[in-house]
């Protein structure tokens, strides 16, 4: 818990020092997301209770293996784009404990000016839904994913600190603004168990070396549970 | 309708209302055929292996219009895919307006797909992009598109062989048919148009435009046209 508080404090301090309108949204995995300000929507067969959810030592688990008609999604709707001189950063640590069937959506970001960036997983694979590319992951292990975008047109994706992709946001997707995650898929025989350690979404002043070093520090404080 | 042949997805609880779609098959029970992402409102069609694969994807609520971000047809899909942006006729279910923002066939296997038909209350069809398809593509049908009375935005077909826009209203969007062709299918446009029309590529099929073009910004047809009249 101390490390979690420290992590939030670090992000909060950076936000407070900024001059524009930056923000920071952090999910710690210590409580159910709807208790930390996230809106939740559950999909299931008629009468079904939805996913089995649990908390364990700072990790939030979504188990949707009972039915491929289950989706359990979390969202914060707000303006997310950075202003000139700022940069958008999304970072999350998760693992695919179990997955079968067609790939399962896990994260979606809808920028302010029409367009989305979204990802799906299989066991051992991360897919970009818009650009149709994939990258291998170590099955069953936690990974830290990090998106950085200054103009919300071009983004970089790093996994475990390694730059793996520079890509483009979809330019004609949803005309709304939100950040969303969870078990984002129904159908396609997709059954999944996901462990979420933390998620962080923020807009901060244009990178300064000091800040770029701080964010990985946030990740480090949440690791190795 | 045989109830047991329906495979329904229902929102069982929400802490904050989110516009979402209900996706169901009409003529099948295999949920492996489609995947729906309620975060992005994207529908992926994976294996429509019947002659005609039909499913409905509609706004479960009656409030704000639902944006269906994209309908993606993946490789290996065969036959005709019919997407109805409304409940099946006669179901009696209530639903809200929906905007289809895109149809993406870029991953579809050329030659396997017999056609894609979109129907329903396309109150604000904001864009259809089609590529790599050899069969007929129809922005269908007159009844439903004419609810809004117009094709509100650009309709772009790349290398499609046939197009039928049957709505009888005023279509304010541009229509562009690109690609080198040859376009062998018929193109039939009904209604009044105020947008630009650009038909590019060689074609041997008929082009029929039945409506008032006096407000059309421009009509441009390029490419080798067979021995048929184009207008």
Provide tags for this entry.
heterodimer; A: 225 residues; mainly beta; Jelly Rolls; eight-stranded antiparallel beta sheet; seven-stranded antiparallel beta sheet; 2 helices; 16 strands; globular; disordered N terminus; disordered C terminus; B: 231 residues; five-stranded parallel beta sheet; 39% strand
Please state the CA-atom Rg of chain B, rounded to the nearest Å: 18 Å
Count of β-strands of chain A: 16
Helix share, percent of chain B: under 10%
Q: Please give the share of residues in helix of chain A.
A: 10-25%
Structural class of chain B: mainly beta
Q: Output the helix-strand order of chain A.
A: HEEEEEEEEEEEEEEEEH
Tally of DSSP helical segments of chain A: 2
Number of strands of chain B: 22
Protein topology:
The complex is a heterodimer of chains A (225) and B (231).
Chain A: H1 2-17, E1 23-27, E2 39-44, E3 52-56, E4 59-63, E5 71-77, E6 86-100, E7 104-110, E8 116-122, E9 125-128, E10 133-136, E11 143-149, E12 154-159, E13 162-168, E14 178-183, E15 186-187, E16 191-205, H2 209-222
Antiparallel strand pairs in A: 1-16, 2-5, 3-4, 4-16, 5-14, 6-11, 6-16, 7-8, 7-14, 8-9, 9-10, 11-12, 12-13
Helix pairs in contact in A: 1-2
Chain B: E1 10-14, E2 21-25, E3 34-37, E4 42-45, E5 52-59, E6 66-68, E7 70-73, E8 79-85, E9 98-100, E10 103-104, E11 113-120, E12 128-130, E13 136-139, H1 142-148, E14 155-158, E15 163-165, E16 170-171, E17 175-178, E18 187-190, E19 192-193, E20 197-199, E21 207-210, E22 219-221
Parallel strand pairs in B: 4-7, 5-8, 6-9, 7-10, 8-11, 11-13, 12-14, 13-15, 14-17, 15-18, 16-19, 17-20, 18-21, 20-22
Antiparallel strand pairs in B: 2-5, 3-4
